[in-house]
Specification:
This protein has 427 residues and is mainly β. 12% of the residues lie in helices and 49% in strands. The strands form 4 sheets. Strands 4-3-2-1-9-8-7-6-5 form a 9-stranded antiparallel β-sheet, sandwiched between helices. An 8-stranded antiparallel β-barrel has the order 10-11-12-13-14-15-16-17. Strand 26 and strand 27 (382-390) form a beta hairpin. The chain is globular.
């Protein structure tokens, strides 16, 4: 019903104003088929007219609230070249990827990126059973357009997006690399909202979105999500970030101070990184009990206030060594330690991944979209961390299996239901 209303509204809007899709004269002088063909030709002409391409503010997540990425697009008659600030496992920000696109008339004029594109389709592919992934679109209904702006609606999820003509002076690689750097440098979990020296509240960051919580008089907590897109100097909120009547939209990032400063006229608001109180307690050296064996492992700072890094060197049969680098993160929501499925190194040119499984049974789940969630307790005066895999702990898949695929799956090493016992703090 929502789509039917939308299309009807669009039809009314389209017939009542002149745009690149239809004109009033077309309504009377052309058949329906001719008008549809004209709209396709005019839109393709507009897309290909920009010598430096277009910028699509690409929103993803449920109702577009997961965040936004920069997608730069350059069109020719049949192909589109895309670059982004959003990195994937095989794509670095600023690189270009070319694929096919089509413009057609069906329930209005549509743009479809229907041949595979590493960048665009990374937003659209599910992560697995019952996990829709980032919930992005690759087919769009054109709502309106002008010489410098095209308004789109995602065909599957209905999220509205804007594509704007890029100025000829914009350096794709430079801008996107800078935006990606802002995203990485500012990727902290907690920020204090400051007005001068006064702390107004604390907000959390989740990907490309801020989350603000509010407790009612009845003790109920509500959460409001504010997605943003990165620029080459900071971020821009997709909708203004609002607190106690204060509205904020544009922020500059100061990496040395770990601070976002609102650049809106008349604003004196800053978002200042705050290290979670319990982050530091996980730094240090542990004895890891794995089955009947044990070894030492030291967790060091990777991203202050957010993540940790541990390195372990193994001796190979036949000589030589292999080094594993494993990332842990501080789970602010659970106030504990966790580790995602991840690539920890390479063997014979193949990625070695951390997978959940059962070593004794020779079984594992071949997905990195899992997390080993730690539970911290105190036993005999020592900090002890046990882990369960989410979502496979019910199947008993709590062993950490380090596996690579080089013409067949091979087990590099395994940590059997590991238990971390802290032996010393970091220096």
């Amino acid at each position: 019903m929502k789509k039917l209303i939308l299309y009807s509204l669009l039809a009314c809007m389209t017939f009542s104003m002149q745009s690149c899709l239809f004109s009033e004269d077309d309504l009377f002088e052309q058949s329906s088929a001719d008008r549809e063909n004209t709209s396709v030709v005019e839109l393709k002409s507009l897309l290909t007219s920009s010598t430096n391409g277009w910028k699509l503010v690409y929103r993803y997540g449920s109702e577009g609230m997961g965040g936004a990425a920069n997608l730069f697009m350059k069109f020719d008659a049949n192909n589109v070249t895309i670059a982004s600030d959003y990195a994937t496992s095989s794509y670095a920000p600023g690189q270009t990827v070319t694929s096919l696109y089509t413009v057609q008339s069906y329930n209005g004029t549509e743009i479809s990126f229907d041949s595979y594109n590493e960048i665009l389709h990374s937003f659209c592919e599910p992560n697995g059973y019952n996990d829709p992934g980032l919930m992005g679109d690759y087919e769009f209904i054109v709502r309106s357009c002008s010489e410098n702006e095209i308004s789109l609606t995602g065909k599957k999820y209905g999220v509205e997006m804007i594509m704007t003509r890029l100025d000829d002076t914009v350096d794709w690689a430079g801008y996107l690399a800078a935006a990606a750097q802002v995203s990485d440098d500012s990727d902290y979990t907690l920020f204090n909202m400051m007005k001068g020296d006064q702390k107004l509240t604390t907000i959390t960051r989740d990907g490309h979105a801020f989350v603000m919580s509010e407790v009612s008089d009845e003790g109920l907590t509500t959460y409001t999500t504010y997605p943003f897109i990165c620029t080459d100097t900071g971020i821009r909120m997709m909708e203004p970030l609002v607190y106690n009547g204060i509205s904020m939209q544009n922020f500059a990032w100061d990496n040395a101070a770990s601070t976002f400063t609102c650049t809106d006229e008349g604003s004196d608001i800053k978002l200042v990184f705050e290290r979670p109180a319990n982050y530091e307690k996980y730094l240090g050296t542990y004895t890891v009990q794995s089955g009947s064996s044990s070894f030492k492992l030291t967790l060091e700072v990777k991203k202050d206030g957010k993540s940790y890094q541990a390195t372990k060197v193994y001796n190979l049969n036949g000589g030589g060594t292999w080094t594993m680098t494993l990332e842990f993160y501080y789970d602010a929501e659970r106030d504990d330690l966790s580790a995602d499925g991840q690539v920890v190194g390479y063997m014979d040119g193949a990625a070695v991944g951390l997978y959940p499984g059962i070593r004794a049974g020779g079984n594992f789940y071949a997905t990195l979209e899992t997390v080993f969630e730690g539970t911290t307790t105190e036993e005999d005066g020592n900090m002890v961390i046990t882990f369960q895999n989410n979502p496979y702990s019910q199947e008993g898949a709590n062993d950490w299996l380090f596996i690579y695929n080089s013409g067949g799956y091979s087990l590099m090493t395994a940590w059997e239901n590991p238990v971390f016992i802290k032996t010393s703090d970091s220096k």
